[in-house]
Amino acid sequence: MQGFDETTRSGAVAVPARIVARGVGVVARGGGEILRGISLAVEPGRLLALAGSSGAGKTTLLEVLAGVRAPDRGTVLRADVPAGGSQAELGFVPQDDIIHRDLPLARTLAYAARLRLPAGTGSAEVQSAVDRVLDALGLTGRAGVRVGLLSGGERKRASIAVELLTRPAVLFLDEPTSGLDPATGAELITLLRDLSRRGTAVVLTTHTPADLSRCDTVGFLSPDGRLVHLGPPEGLSAHFGVDTVEEVYGVVTADTPDLADEGPGADEPTAEARSAPAQPPRPLGALGQWALLTRRSADIMIRNRLSVAVLAGSPVMIVIMFVMLFRAGAFDPADPSPGTAAMILFWIAFGAFFFGLTYGLLQICTEIAVVRRERLTVLRLGPYVLAKATVLLPVLAAADALLLAVLRALDRLPAAGWSVYGSLFATTVLASAAALALGLLASAAVSEPGQATLMLPLLCFPQVLFSGAFVPVPQMAWPGWALSWAMTNRWAFESLGSGIGLNALWAHGRSPLGPPLLASYGDTFGGPTARGWIWLAGFTVLFLTGAWALLARSCPRARAVAETAAPSP
Ligand SMILES: Nc1ncnc2c1ncn2[C@@H]1O[C@H](COP(=O)(O)OP(=O)(O)OP(=O)(O)O)[C@@H](O)[C@H]1O
After folding, report:
1. Residue nearest atom 17 of ligand 1, based on CA coordinates
2. pTM
3. Residues with CB under 6 A from ligand 1
4. Contact 353, 526 (CB under 8 A)
5. Nearest ligand 1 atom to alpha carbon 207
6. How far is the CA of 496 from the centre of ligand 1 (A)?
7. Shortest-distance Cα residue to atom 6 of ligand 1
8. What is the maximal distance between C-alpha atoms in the chain?
9. What is the residue range of the signal peptide feature (predicted)?
């Protein structure tokens, strides 16, 4: 590990910053107080550790200082040390990794750099920023290794490297040493200390007593969220009248007196700093983000064996099953099989739905920590969601085309012109698009991949039951009839039937089973094919908007710290 010595001088920050919290309080949703009356200053060139028992509020305080979360009481203000000029960035490393595991380290850093560095940054500058942070964190030798194969300590350093790309003035880290062995943890703290010596203010939370002795200042929280000590680590145990830092955790209770509130000191941010909005350099625009995120998503998908297996395997498996299930010639007007013809169309609609849903379900929840972090500063959610659809729609269209082509080649579908097959193809692609959007919505709604997997049957069952294939829509009880309007599969099934002329086959084909089926299904296939397309396109837009809205709620933007002033009680 290089550290931030003279050879890595480019790791220095351009604009050091000071952050001052005064009387900060945070109230939990249930009404309990998480933090009470906390005042402290984060200084450039200093390494501040926040310690305290589990649940004391360390992460909450870190998030408030970083602008990730707004305080309910008090103020958090920042002052960039030199007057004038643009304000420098804040870096935030949460506990979860904030890099994609499927990409080689240098590649994932290059994507992060293109997203975070100002619009118009050239390839050479991106490469030099990546080389700089790899060097600074001792990861140059691991540049070509897939992130998932790095050790825990290397991955933690890789997450820090992402943050250093923009030369942040203040770097916040939530438990950076958790899960690391003592030597690796100590090495990491030394590295952060070197970083702080170069002008960056570093704030971290930790549970490891050994970390505290390597920091400049320790802020100790009581179990009820008050700051009960703030000072150099050497004075910590003496302050509480015990021999070791470990013992401090035992003696600090809700009865421990508050730190005397002397405030953060005379050089509090000036009035100008209070009112100055943060002016980060202009980031990549919406179109640029969409193009970059599309490339990154495609790159990740191709490199992930599981996703390649799902993308290629599920259409092939479903086509084989359909071929095994249905006999040839169900659409032959001379000897039709009316019931089978309807079932073939239903299962084509369901196949298109299933491809789209399975493709979408794991897209967002598997990288939510990365999205959350990128959203804090630069990421736009519209381009992000659209990039997912852009990458997956062509693959879905290919799967739908394969399904139709194989079924036609093996005579499970009738000999018909290009216009009929164009209509069937358009229906399946729209059905897949709506299902993909539903999958993305579900993926944005859950918090982990396990929950997304559980959603699969929950989303599929109603689409089978209420599509109108097994119980025709005119025969449904009214609650089922009402629900059927919300089923994308109903509209795909109806458009397929109308596009292929199922009513005519049932009415004029030489099978006595046709007319009764026609009577039972009513005008299910009698409407224009485009009616189903409009419904499917509408659902696609609705579900994509829903995914965007859910992400906007769960992944908020960071608040400009200078503006996070809440009224004091
Ligand atoms: N959004 C929230 N809504 C309700 N309660 C919350 C919320 N965020 C945090 N808490 C509660 O606030 C308390 C402090 O949480 P926090 O994660 O800040 O503590 P911590 O000191 O970092 O804990 P640990 O060391 O175990 O990570 C906990 O009891 C937690 O359950």
Report:
1. 59
2. 0.85
3. 28-29, 34, 52, 54-60, 205
4. no
5. 25
6. 52
7. 28
8. 98
9. none
Q: Are 374 and 450 in contact (CB under 8 A)?
A: no
Distance of CA 213 from the midpoint of ligand 1 (Å): 25
Distance 56 CA to ligand 1 centre (A): 7
8 A C-beta contact, residue 86 and residue 256: no
Kindly provide the ipTM of the predicted complex, given to two decimals: 0.94
Residue whose pair of structure tokens reads 């351009």 in the numeric block: 14
In 3D space, the residue among 261, 277, 203 whose CA is nearest the CA of residue 18 turns out to be 203
Which residue has its alpha carbon closest to ligand 1 atom 12? 34
Distance between CA atoms of residues 344 and 346, nearest Å = 5
Sequence-distant (6+) residues with CB within 8 A of 337 are 327, 329, 330, 511, 513
Domains and CATH numbers, the chain: 1-89+168-258 (3.40.50.300), 101-166 (no CATH), 286-554 (no CATH)
Give nearest CA residue, ligand 1 atom 30: 55
- Token representation of residue 15: 């604009």
Residue 44 in contact with residue 32, Cβ under 8 Å?
A: no
Rounded Cα distance, 51 and 54, in Å: 9
**pLDDT tens across 58-73, in order?**
999 999 999 889 899 9
The string of pLDDT tens digits covering residues 195-239 is: 898 888 999 999 999 999 999 999 999 999 999 999 999 989 999
187 Cα distance to chain centroid: 30
